[in-house]
Structures are given as structure tokens and as C-alpha cells.
Amino acid sequence: MQMLYNSENFAVVHIEVAEAASSPAWAHDGVEAPRRGGYEIVDKQSRREIFIEGTLAEYFKAGVEALIQQSPSAEEIDDYLSAYTVLAQQPVLLH
After folding, report:
1. What percent of the chain has pLDDT over 70?
2. Which of 46, 49, 48 is nearest to 38 (CA)?
3. pLDDT over 70 at 57, yes or no
4. Which residues pair with 11 in a beta bridge?
5. Is the pLDDT of residue 23 over 60?
6. 33: exposed, middle or buried (Cβ count in 10 Å: 0-12, 13-18, 19+)
């Protein structure tokens, strides 16, 4: 788990988990287990969070990388994140 962004309004954490190496599909010697994970985006103002993975996580990552090329302000980053947290339904209980 790695904190990628933390502002007054949002927090973004990258979560990456290795699949169990004992899984039958990955029990071959020398084959690394695939990695799973995604991004947790917390809207601190609404106290809601969303976890994105798969294709949506890749799209999010590409958008962040493009945004970073423009040297964005914190407000511009927060605006980008708010497009994702509009989907957030999970209340934040502990953070």
C-alpha cells in the first residue's frame, strides 16, 4: 500500500497485492504470481470512498500521468479526483 496523494479534500492510495503463489495455475517454478490491486480514492469532505481496479484503474492511472505532465495545482488534481468520487458509495469508517 502506497499513499500517492493527500490533500485537504482527497486521499489516494495505491494497493497492490500478489496472488497466492500456491495457486494451481501459478505453481510452476520460476513463474511469478500475477499482481492485483487498484486505487482507493477517499473524498474527505463527503466521507466516502471508492476502490477502482482493472480497466478503470488503468484509465485512472493514464489520466493522472497526463495531468502530472501539465504540473497541475492541487485544485486541478482535486477536480480530476472528484470525477471518480462522484461514484463513491462506501462510507469511510476508519482512516
Report:
1. 79
2. 49
3. yes
4. 6, 42
5. no
6. middle
